[in-house]
Design a protein that fits this description.
alpha/beta
Length: 390
């Protein structure tokens, strides 16, 4: 029996990226492998945490962890030095200790929020009231992720006599155009009439210089990656019958995917009151209290449409209201953000920043375990909300 290759940090990174592709993260975020190398062996357990604090770092060292997955990136702002002297910051000491101990650190953050079945859907599940673990409540992203297919960033359009269309199509394809998923030579053509008037120095493929010509042509369209446009056009010119072929390059907009992205807009299967939703959230998060603010002043009125964002979701409150949400559930908001939402007719439930995230870690560990059954995944016992209710 062939000996199985030892796991490496690159295997962990690949598994995490398959659950929450880093392309889903917000542009401002700092996600992915932040400390370590993909070539490092994954020799110890993987510690899951929301925040990589100094106590969590000590926990990782004590258990001889091979890696830490920290939901919040421990490296975010620019780091000017990494020291452990009297003037060092906690962030510097944490990074230094992870490097010293050979413990890799990975952060999924907003990618894990946006992905289907991630943190946001977990939070929404607790509010849906299904009770059977099913994905109750019709839902979509509050801000849909824009999918950018790297092979369909632009569209190249040219005009060619029908007899030469196949040759030009093949030429464009050899230059990298016409690839959609696993398909190649993808194109569209439509007949039309082209006109041109060549000058005295021209040598037109059809007609006579100085005479206005009218020629039946095909409009040929093929998608292409931006990086391949130059080669595709160069190849097109080589095989096109015209001295000066007409070539248009159109940028293509990314396509929104309503199942993926920041936040969720959820229609409840059965209307519920603000008080009932608050109780569901407390039970789901296993916390003693949540904060509520009723836009109407009445927390017993039934509502059907809610917006959900884990952590600090105030930036999406306006979008939630524009999408018809009556209640907005998130971790934390500033006072003026709450009052603005209430004035717009949007009720608020706040469950605590990390409380709306931390309960997902066991589910995340289970997903990773399915992909890497030989690895061990442990939820931190020292990671906790820095704020407590009394």
């Amino acid at each position: 029996m062939a000996q199985q290759s030892p796991m490496r940090i690159s295997d962990l990174v690949a598994a995490a990226d398959s659950i929450a592709p880093l392309a889903l993260a917000e542009e401002w975020d700092n996600v992915g492998l932040l400390i370590g190398s993909g070539s490092w062996p994954l020799a110890g357990p993987v510690l899951l945490t929301i925040d990589l604090t100094e106590s969590v770092a000590r926990e990782a060292v004590a258990m001889r962890a091979g890696a830490v997955i920290a939901y919040h990136p421990p490296i975010f702002a620019a780091v000017k030095r990494i020291t452990d002297g009297p003037a060092s910051t906690a962030a510097e000491r944490i990074v230094l200790s992870m490097i010293r101990e050979g413990i890799a650190v990975y952060s999924p953050h907003t990618a894990l929020d946006a992905t289907p079945g991630g943190v946001t859907d977990w939070l929404a599940d607790g509010l849906a009231g299904g009770g059977d673990g099913a994905r109750a409540g019709d839902r979509r992203a509050l801000r849909s992720h824009l999918r950018r297919d790297p092979t369909q960033e632009v569209k190249i359009v040219t005009f060619v006599p029908e007899r030469d269309a196949a040759r030009v199509r093949d030429a464009l394809a050899s230059g990298g155009a016409g690839r959609i998923g696993e398909y190649q030579l993808c194109s569209f053509s439509a007949p039309g009439t082209g006109t041109f008037l060549g000058g005295e120095q021209t040598n037109p493929a059809a007609g006579t210089p100085g005479v206005l010509e009218s020629v039946p042509e095909l409009r040929l369209e093929m998608v292409c990656a931006r990086r391949a446009v130059a080669l595709a056009i160069t190849t097109l010119r080589q095989f096109h019958p015209y001295e000066e072929p007409a070539i248009d390059v159109y940028p293509l907009e990314p396509r929104p995917d309503r199942s993926v992205g920041a936040g969720r807009r959820m229609m409840l299967d059965h209307p519920a009151s603000l008080s009932s939703l608050a109780d569901r959230l407390k039970n789901h998060l296993n916390v003693g209290a949540v904060q509520i603010a009723a836009a109407s002043g009445n927390s017993s009125s039934p509502v059907s449409c809610i917006g959900v964002v884990p952590g600090a979701g105030a930036s999406l409150a306006g979008q939630a209201r524009a999408e018809g949400c009556e209640v907005f559930v998130t971790g934390e908001m500033k006072h003026h953000e709450v009052t603005a939402a209430l004035a717009a007719g949007l009720s608020i439930i706040l469950g605590g920043h990390t409380a709306t995230e931390r309960g997902y870690l066991p589910s995340y560990g289970a997903l990773l375990k399915k992909l890497l059954p030989a690895a061990g995944f442990v939820v931190s016992t020292t990671d906790r909300d820095p704020l407590t209710l009394r």
